[in-house]
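Project outcomes to date are best conveyed with an example. Our students and postdoctoral researchers have been running inverse folding experiments weekly, and each run begins with a structure described purely in tokens. The record below, which covers 295 residues, was selected by the lab manager from last quarter's runs and is presented without edits.
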């Protein structure tokens, strides 16, 4: 399908009006690193591109008074990767963003685009699920907030309709002094490759135990997989090797990776889930314990 118009609105309201006018024939575009490929392969029906590049205020990272940070819809992977505040108080996110493509891709690709594309192994999306992010959405006459876990509907399926509504920001609650997060990735030995496995973890510490945990895996299911049984086991009693191992075993049991020519056999990846979860939990805990584990 040929693109007949590429429009540049100067406000969110104008962008939404253009989408409404086209009645499903238009799509929002920001970085375009996923969408342009899909258009080229004719996987996405689209006649009009509504470009958000000229809308002011979408490219900022802003601390709010409620302890959350607001990441505008235009925030790129590079911006998130280089944010000192995010590295200090939401480390899993800049760590994940640093794995996306090469510098040129990270300079264009946006966090919101990584979420809307709804891929189960997206390097920014997994940390955002672990960080319990909330999406701010605008449509004609309406603003709403959507927990990020509710944005996924199977592999490549999204609850967000980019022909009718716009994600204007991502909201995450920053770590306090009792919290830490980490992201790890397993891949082939070459640059710019897709992950074989990835894991994001957020922990809250009370004394010598984990009081809250979020453990997220990909690609081992049709959506970023939050492993609630592993989280529960990790929070039962004093933190230690046995507790970590029980959580890692639960994560391995919950994962259902497919056989893949590129990523390896499902059986191999299922076993490696245990290794990834163990290491990522240990990294997050080491940050809470002041043992390094950069940052």
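After processing, the design step wrote out the following sequence:
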């Amino acid at each position: 399908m040929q693109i007949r118009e590429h429009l540049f609105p100067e406000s969110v309201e104008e962008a939404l009006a253009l989408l409404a006018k086209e009645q499903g024939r238009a799509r929002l575009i920001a970085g375009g690193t996923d969408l342009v490929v899909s258009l080229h392969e004719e996987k996405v029906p689209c006649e009009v591109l509504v470009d958000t590049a000229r809308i002011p205020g979408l490219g900022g990272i802003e601390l709010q008074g409620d302890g959350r940070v607001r990441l505008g819809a235009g925030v790129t992977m590079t911006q998130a990767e280089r944010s000192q505040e995010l590295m200090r108080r939401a480390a899993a996110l800049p760590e994940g963003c640093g794995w996306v493509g090469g510098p040129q891709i990270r300079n264009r690709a946006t966090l919101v685009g990584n979420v809307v594309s709804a891929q189960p192994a997206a390097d920014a999306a997994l940390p955002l699920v672990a960080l319990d992010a909330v999406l701010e959405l605008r449509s004609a006459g309406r603003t709403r907030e959507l927990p990020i876990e509710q944005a996924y509907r199977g592999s490549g399926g999204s609850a967000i309709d980019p022909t009718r509504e716009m994600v204007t920001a991502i909201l995450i609650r920053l770590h306090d002094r009792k919290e830490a997060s980490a992201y790890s990735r397993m891949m082939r030995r070459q640059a710019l490759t897709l992950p074989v496995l990835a894991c994001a973890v957020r922990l809250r510490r009370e004394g010598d135990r984990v009081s809250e945990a979020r453990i997220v895996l990909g690609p081992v299911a049709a959506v970023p997989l939050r492993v609630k049984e592993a989280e529960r086991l990790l929070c039962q009693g004093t933190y230690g090797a046995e507790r970590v191992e029980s959580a890692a075993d639960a994560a391995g049991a919950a994962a259902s990776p497919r056989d893949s020519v590129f990523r390896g056999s499902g059986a191999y990846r299922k076993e490696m889930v245990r290794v990834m979860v163990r290491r990522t939990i240990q990294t997050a805990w080491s940050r809470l314990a002041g043992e390094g584990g950069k940052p």
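The chain has three domains: 5-51, 61-173, 179-288. The radius of gyration is 19 Å. The training component of this project remains on track.
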